[in-house]
Structures are given as C-alpha cells and as structure tokens.
Amino acid sequence: MKVLQFPLARITIGFILGLLFAFYLQPSTSAVFIALVTSSSIFGVLYFLSKNRNQLTLYFGIGTYFLSFIIGISTQIAHTDYFQSSNYIHNTAVFEKPQFISLTIREKMKSSAFSDRHLAIINHIGQKEQTGRIILNIQNDSLHHVLEVGNSLLIKGTLTKNKPPNNPNQFDYSKYLEIKQIYAQLYADVDEIKIGTEVEKNIWYYSSKLRTRIIRNLEKNNFNKTELNVAIALIMGQQQDISPDIIRDYQFAGAVHILSVSGLHIGFILLFVTYILKPIPNSKRGSFIKLIIILLSLSMFGIIAGLAPSVVRSVTMFSFVAIGNHLRRSVNIYHTLLVSVLLILLVEPSFLFDVGFQLSYIALFFIIWLQPFLSSIWKPKYKVSKYIWDILTVSFAAQIGTLPLSIYYFHQFPGLFFVTNLIIIPLLSIIMILGVLVMLLAACNMIPVFLSQLLEWSICYLNKIINAIASLEQFIIKDIPLHFYLLLSGYLLLFTVILWFKKPSFNKLALVLISILILQFSYFKIQWKIQTEQELVVFNSKKSTLITERKGENILVYANDSILKTAQKNSLLKSYRIGNFSTLKQKKRLQNFIFFNGKKIFVLDSSGIYPKNIKPDIIVLTESVKINADRMLQEMKPKLVVADASNFKNIQKLWKASCEKQKIPFHATGEKGFYKLN
After folding, report:
1. Contact in structure between 622 and 644 (CB atoms under 8 Å)
2. Pairing mode of beta strands 133-139, 182-188
3. pLDDT tens across 638-660, in order?
4. Per-residue pLDDT reduced to its tens digit, 560-582
5. How many of the other CB atoms lie within 10 Å of CB of 613?
C-alpha cells in the first residue's frame, strides 16, 4: 500500500505500538524516562549527521520510528492516572473506612434500576489534595435535588474498587472502567451528601447547560419522550435515556452505529454548513471566513455531543479536510486520517482502546480504501441506480471492515444491514439537517412547533422502520464465538484478499495462501487447547445454584428444573458457551454427589442431610442450609468449602468464621466470584 510509504504512517504505527506496549506491559516510569532521553539524544545526533551523509538516512529513519515508539510509551504512562502519585488509588485508607471526599460532577451517566450514576472528579480526601475519576452512585429516591455538571459535593463514604466479573467469560466492566481511568465507585445516600454553593464552570459545564436548555425547550413543545431520546442520541450523541428495547431494535437491524455520533453525522454537518455559506464569495478573505465558521461549527457540535471518542475523531478529521480545501490543496484522505489519529491519541491515548473509536476508524478506512474498487465493478447509467449502488458499496465496505471486530465484541451479525442502510441513509440525511436546525433554534428558545413536530414524526417513522427490520430475527446470526487469534488472522486474510482482488499477482496470491494457513493454524491451535481442557465451574448465580462440567467442547449442566428448562437462553451459560467455543450437551437435575477428575464434590442443599465420614474434597453449600457448621466440618473434613449466591450473606459470614477456626479455605462466589476446578 502506497500510504505506508508516507513517513507519517510509519511514525503513527510506531506511536500506536508504543501505546500498546505501555498498556499491556506497564514499564516503570524511570525506565521510560531513561529510554526517552536516550532515544531523543540518538535522534538528535543522527539528524545532524544525516544532513551531511546520505548513507546515514536509513539510520535516521530507524531512529525516528524508534523515538515515536518511545513517545507512545511515555504518552500512555503520562496519561494513565494510576501512575500519578496524587491519584486516590494510592490512598488505602479511603478504601478501608469512611472519609470526607470532595468531588465535582463531570458527566451524567445512564442510571441503573437502583441509583442515579454520575462521573465525578475527586478534589480532596480529608485534608489531602487528591485526583482521579470515580463513578458516583446515588439512590434513586433519596435525592430530590437534581445534580448538575459542575456541582461540588462533600460526601462521607468509602470508595469501592472495581470488581472483576463474577462469572466466566462475562463482559469485564472493571477492565472497561480502568481503560477510562476509573478505578473505584462511591455509593452514597442523601444523608451523606452536602452540595456546595460553588459551581465549576468549564467546557463540560457549558456543554451540559446547552444540552439541557435544548432538551427543555423541546419538551415544552410536547416532543414525545421516546422520539426525543432518539433525537438527542442522533444529534447530540447522548444515549443515556434511550430505552433498551429501542437500542435492541437498532442492534438487530444493523443500525446501532447511527445512535453514536460519528463521521456520517459530522459529514452531514460539514455539507450543511458549506451549503449555507455558499453566498460568501470565494475570495481570500471570504474563504478564510468560511473556514473559521466551519471549524467553529464543527467544534461546537463536538462539544454539544459530549466530546465522545468517535465525535472527536470525526471533528478532527473533517477539520483537516476543511483546512485542506481552504488552502486549495487536494486532500489525501489517508494522510488526514493519520494526522487525526496521531493528534487524538497524543491528547487522549485511552481512546485507542475504545470500541466505538476502533469501529469508527476501521469503517472509515475500509470505505476510503475498498469502496472505490467496489464502485468500479459496475457503472450505473441513471442517477437513481448510481445513488443506490453508492449506498450499497459504502455500506458493504464498512460492514466488511468492521465485521470481524463486531463479531469479536458483540457475537452477532445483522443479515439485513444492506436493507437497513439503503432505507435509513436517505431518511437520516433529512433528519440530521432538520435536527441540527431544530437544536439550534431550541438553543435560542425560538423553535417553531411545526419544525419540532416534523422532526418528531421523522424519527417516529425511522423507529418503526428499524423495528420492522429488527423483527425479522431469522436474519440475525447470534452467538458467534471468535477468539482474539482468529480476529487477527481474519483481518490478515481480509487485507491480503482485497489487495489481490484490486491488483492480482502471483506474490499477492502467495500472501493470500499464507494468510489462509495462518488462519487455519490459529483455529486448530484454539481447538486443540479447548479439546484438552476439563473444568468444573460453580457459578455466581443469584438465588439459584448453577454448576457446569466442561470436557472439551461439551458442557454438562447441573441445576434445578427452572434453570434447565431455559438453559439455552440463560445469559450466564450463553457467555460461557461462546467464550469456550462449546455447546450444551447434557442437562441434569442438581444432585448431592459430583465426581470430577478424581475429586469428590458434595452439594449440601436446604435439606441439611449429609452422610458422615465421607470426607469430600469440596463441599458446596447452597440454599442457606440450616446446619451446625462447626460440627459438619469436623465430621466431613473437607479440603475446601464453596458457598454460592443462593445463600444469604449473613449465613455465609457464620460459615466463613467456622472455616477460619478449622483452617479450611472458604470461597464465597458473591465475594470472590465463580469457583473453577481444573
């Protein structure tokens, strides 16, 4: 690819590799500092020597890429709050006993069934100045004062560290929060909160105020709540209040990407603003005025949309496109893409690990790389057929590019994405133009009722179309497992096949065949690993007991009748099946004795009946069984006791105390997560 010959491409790749190196290996700050000073010195020496000696140009290039790699490492370290000495994670006292915590509300998050959630920035803990982000959880019905972005709070409480998943192969929310530099949560009641009189007025405050003003003015016009929440997501990128059913419909229809403001939306904004500015003459001064207005419009839209990763990426990239047009230069879209990546990751390297950021960039790359080739396959004669063909090729290019990553993260594929995009893109263009106009008028408190109703009706019909497509569930392929090795080898094969199709040659065909071999090797390696594995898992299943025995790709489930009837749809088993490339082969009603790999496991249920002197290796306590724990442990003499989530917490504390007396390990799934025996 010619784009790789561009020096900035290799510098960007080196920088990204540095970010990945620092993220996964976490080198010490002193070693990174030494490496940065050394690489900078080598770069400086090679720069001056290469000016007079052309033969040193190669070494100067290597030094440049090595320096970009080290800068990537140092950028990741510098932007990781964990390495900051002032971060609250290093204050052990705040995790052990209540402290007075001073914090500022930064962002309102999606509420849970039990609490309102906010992203907050810590200012002080006790008398000590501290920094860091946390999630603040406040009981739904406990706080009548609505918190706003910028509010200063004083709370007496204890921070809770993020916990890993309670069950195998579940979404790791703890890791997700860690990527966003959030290492703890704070649970508070109204009695523990004091709201300060001062409000921190920064870019987040004014962005939130503007969004709130727009929403309130739309509500005054009797804008339907369901359509309003979708409009806020489409125009302003805020998905907190969309109902799960609507999100599910968009996911199944293959249109969930339009609910996240991205390049498609920013592109509409750029075209719309450019069209409005047409009356301004294209003189030197007029062109400069146009550029300033466009950049301000894009920046303002990015702020209103909450500066999400996909929004920042799109605004940055289209800003460079606008600057290139102003300078009357042909804009190389690849170079624009690379510059936007480099600038964004220099400021916020954590965006690299954001799923939306990854999908957005991959989709855009494949559109500009693959779509022209697909478009050239057929040249329609008529405008309508050309318009339809362009939509199909753009949609196909984006879907092909994001397919492996989408399956890896979401394990499903919407088969009707072609139909969805063909229908909604024309409608979306109308909604975006109308929506931006309505939002601007709403911000100025002068919105005509007929315009807001027109927007409401448009979104209502959009939702109905999406719902109709999503209802055809037979076209949705679900529960697709994909290992990380298969993801990488799959992309390798995809790239080599496209390169070969675009310009066939023997060498490119050889690369395709090598890629196929690598894909097959990855698959067989994963299969061999799975086939040789054997494990027994006691799940952390609330109010019920769930135990699985897996040998290779076959799973045997032990549970009560109610769980066995819906085992295929059980969310815990579903995640476990997909994560281990396995299938449910057998279902058995829960029994007292389970034998696994020479280990004797006794499941003690609510009956409280157990045989004496059987000496099991493991006892699984269930259903809050009423027993004399001390006597039972003395008679059965187990090597380990496991209490699952079907037991009350107060009883588990008594069992734990009994185990500690007799020096028997105790594992409560509610506290430590699932138990696995290999």
Report:
1. yes
2. parallel
3. 999 999 999 998 999 999 999 99
4. 888 888 888 888 999 999 999 99
5. 7
Where helices occur in 545-668 by DSSP H, the ranges are 561-565, 571-579, 629-636, 649-661
Tell me the residue type at 162: N
Euclidean distance between CA atoms 619 and 635, whole angstroms:
12
Token duo for residue 437: 């106009």
The pLDDT value recorded for residue 264 is 67
CA separation for the pair 123, 154 (Å, rounded): 10
Residues 6+ apart with CB under 8 A from 456: 223, 224, 227, 228, 231
Q: How confident is the model at residue 261 (pLDDT cuts 50, 70, 90)?
A: low
Higher pLDDT, 399 or 263: 399
Dist CA 426 CA 416 (whole Å):
17
- 412, 476 Cβ separation under 8 angstroms: yes
Cα dihedral: 432, 433, 436, 439 (round 10): -100
The model's pLDDT over 449-477, given as tens digits with 9 standing for 90+, comes to: 888 888 889 889 888 998 888 888 888 88
b/e per residue 253-290 (b: at least 16 CB within 10 A): bbbbbbbbbbbbbbbbbbebbeeebeeeeeeeeebeeb
CA dihedral angle for residue 535, residue 540, residue 545, residue 548, rounded to 10 degrees: -20
Do 256 and 247 contact (CB within 8 A), yes or no? yes
Find the DSSP H helices in 164-262: 173-179, 203-220, 225-236, 244-253
* Phi/psi at 91 (5° precision): -100, 95
